[in-house]
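DM from R.C. (forwarded with permission)

"hey, sorry to bug you on a friday — could you get me a structure for this? deadline for the figure draft is monday and I only need the backbone to look sensible"
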Amino acid sequence: MLAGLLTACASAPPGSAGVSPCHQQWADFQRQVDKHGRTDAQDPIVAGFPYLRVNRLLASFTGTLQQQDRSSAQVHDWLQQALELGRRGATVEWANLPRAARQELRTPAGAPLQLDDLLGCASNAIAPDQLNTESLRQVLLRARVPDSYSTLARASGGYIVARHLALNGVNNLHEEMLQRIGRKDPRARKWPESGPRETARLSREQVADILRSGYGRSALGVPQFEDAERRQLLIHFAPVLKLGVATPSDIIGTVGWNRQDEVEVRVGKPATYTMMSATRHRGQVLTQLNYVFWFPRRAAQHMLDPYAGKLDGLIWRVTLRPDGRVLMYDSIHPCGCYHTLYFPESGPEARQAGFAEEPVLVYPARMPDAYAARPVLHISPVDHHVIDIGARGAETGSPDRDYRFYSYDALRSLPRDDGSQQSLFGTDGLVPGTERGERAFLWPLGVISPGQMRQWGHHATAFVGRRHFDDANLLDTLLK
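My reply, with the result:
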């Protein structure tokens, strides 16, 4: 129902006298996307403006921008970034549509509609002479990202009582994790290393120069990087993984569809899926580097293991200060679980959780200097936690296996044997087939399908309260 309403809104933006050819093309496109279940859920569409999408960072600016004139540089920059998210989302959905569905789409002149037609008219639609003041006001009012919690589940499941049980469980889990840190897991038969093939390293001054260039391209203060700059940063800060191997599912790999139309992780091809994001902290926008590693599954430790299931992984994130220093690192699993903070020697400290507030696990040792060595993350077998951290300098040699770099966007449109494309993620932002047994007893806490693998933008990281990995002001709530 909601998809139908949004598609209807897409036909005529507020303040328009009728349906423009551009909006009609977008409405037709969205109808096909909805009909075939190809909606990409990463960045939600701004209702009524189908070519614009937002994330939590962009949404955090809307209150300030509502006070500015349409011609301001910050408003223009915000619109361009929302348009870029729209372009990426539409490109993914176009690639994932069945060929026959694309062939049904037509321009106003009756010619076959091309993706370039959609993207071209979208650029024109946000020009100053097309997007009037009232339309801009509606864009900013509607630029919202829904959270990944079910208020209904909390209301009907006794959340007030369940949250106290959850806090006790989280504290016990943290105690258990802290006891495991620095110890070799006896289940592991071997500890092979996997790291980046590229050995190029940057100085802090070089990183600061890249960041300065990125900030200089944005009136909004959200760094914008060129492809070469992104690659340099991602290679420099990439970690090495020291994998505790007890089962065939303890090796990272490349994600793809097999001939049975099932998702699999090909461990013969180690990989990391990378993306850059940004966050706000103490009035500044900070650059973040994200590395996503996938395991074939989390193996069952006993017959009724509620945490076992298909696919598992680790998301490792680096947050940079504008001067090139690392502010902090943090990690989660792709289910949004096990949020952990790691600090360098000169880093901040975590804020103590308040009463009835869910704490975040803090790794007890300080991280190695990012410009002297790569961090080596020791990953436990079976449950794939970071249980120790070492360092690998240039003189140490290469890891046992190289991993390749892929864009995280590749997961949104994976090739299939029949030549078509399909996202790893469902239209709800969850990975089908990765449900966990834990959802049977954790549902009163309101997290939608606890333990299930998720798409970026859908990582709820707390059972008590509401917290997301990509919250624009997350660091202000976690750090002193």
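R.C.: lifesaver. Residues 1-11 have pLDDT under 50 and may be disordered.
me: no worries. Residues 373 and 395 are 10 Å apart (CA to CA).
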